[in-house]
């Protein structure tokens, strides 16, 4: 009896899931750098294009290396299907535009990454899609926002940058009662610590640029969900608009998946230690970390997440104090990325969330004193020393 990969432990799925070896029997996944594919006959080409016979046609439609990445991530997520994209934002854009058309209504959590907010608030309205933003932790706000033409809900949970956590199952139930689909951006939790599809979400999106690569090399994204729904909703938009993930980036991300669980758990251990130090420091007015009991949504986190993740945020009271903190760091880099092996800190108000109006930033509690830190794989004592010294300088 052959092994069923769905019965494998997470670590085995990450190393061997989706593996499709060429006739050469390579151990490391093959990298297929090709734009198109040849056919044995005109009839074979016709059968391939009609869908009567399986196979690859064009890199924009699919690629063997990319297929391995998609299959492995789907196996990890517990999804029936995955489609890779060139970036996380390409995944968010395709996920939403595949669901919505002119005259439709979207309900979204108001705490969002700046580019996500731009797509929803600035781009979709150009094509006749209206949006209502709500406090994602307020279930009554979700219910009140529903209209007869509501087709989709969208949340980040935990949300960028202040780690607000929504009850995915409860929001999914409200969406489904309204006949809408729920899309969840699961980047901060990673597929290691949270499974939105199991909780009731219809679609999960990732920026694979973050933890999945995790080493600052390439961009990538992914959309995951039910196979039939993915085929009906996203096949044509992904084929014809061209947000394809390159085979090289697919190969890099495949190798990143092999160590994802190890890296995320070690980063989370480090983040917990750093968060405790920050919370106890006199300069921190407020510290938010999903692994701490004082998180505002700790009860929700206990029900749907199995780890706190590697990102924390804290309020130093002013932009000047936040910048003094950042400029005093000697080990941690100032960078707007997250999920990397290297620790990074950023000032969201002037970087990742700069495109938001002051009113919108204040609505999610993002004042200019906040700093977001993505904790990496460095020695925890070195990180604590560096962060403590920078807090003193703040």
Unreliable stretches, pLDDT < 50, 5 or more residues? Answer: none
Portion of residues within helices: 40-55%
- Let me know the largest β-sheet: 7 strands, mixed
Number of domains: 2
Outline: globular
Q: Provide mean pLDDT, rounded.
A: 97
Distance between the termini: 62 Å
Number of strands: 12
Rg to the nearest angstrom?
Answer: 21 Å
CATH topology of the largest domain: Aspartate Aminotransferase, domain 2
CATH class assignment of the largest domain: Alpha Beta
Strand order of the largest sheet: 1-7-6-5-4-2-3
Structural class: alpha/beta
- The CATH architecture of the largest domain comes to 3-Layer(aba) Sandwich
Beta content comes to: 5-15%
CATH superfamily of the largest domain: Type I PLP-dependent aspartate aminotransferase-like (Major domain)
> SSE string, helix = H, strand = E?
HHHEHEHEHEHEHHEHEHHHEHEHEEHEH
Structure in a nutshell:
The protein has 394 residues and is α/β, with parallel strands linked by helices. Helix content is 42%, strand content 14%. Strands 1-7-6-5-4-2-3 form a 7-stranded mixed sheet, with helices on both faces. Strands 8-9-12-11-10 form a 5-stranded mixed sheet.
In terms of topology, how is this protein built?
Blueprint: H1 10-16, H2 42-50, H3 64-77, E1 81-85, H4 88-99, E2 105-109, H5 114-123, E3 130-134, H6 139-145, E4 150-156, H7 168-177, E5 181-185, H8 190-193, H9 196-199, E6 203-207, H10 209-213, E7 221-225, H11 227-241, H12 247-258, H13 260-280, E8 286-289, H14 298-304, E9 311-315, H15 319-328, E10 333-334, E11 344-346, H16 358-363, E12 370-374, H17 380-393
Parallel strand pairs: 2-3, 2-4, 4-5, 5-6, 10-11
Antiparallel strand pairs: 1-7, 6-7, 8-9, 9-12, 11-12
Helix pairs in contact: 1-3, 3-12, 4-11, 13-17, 15-17
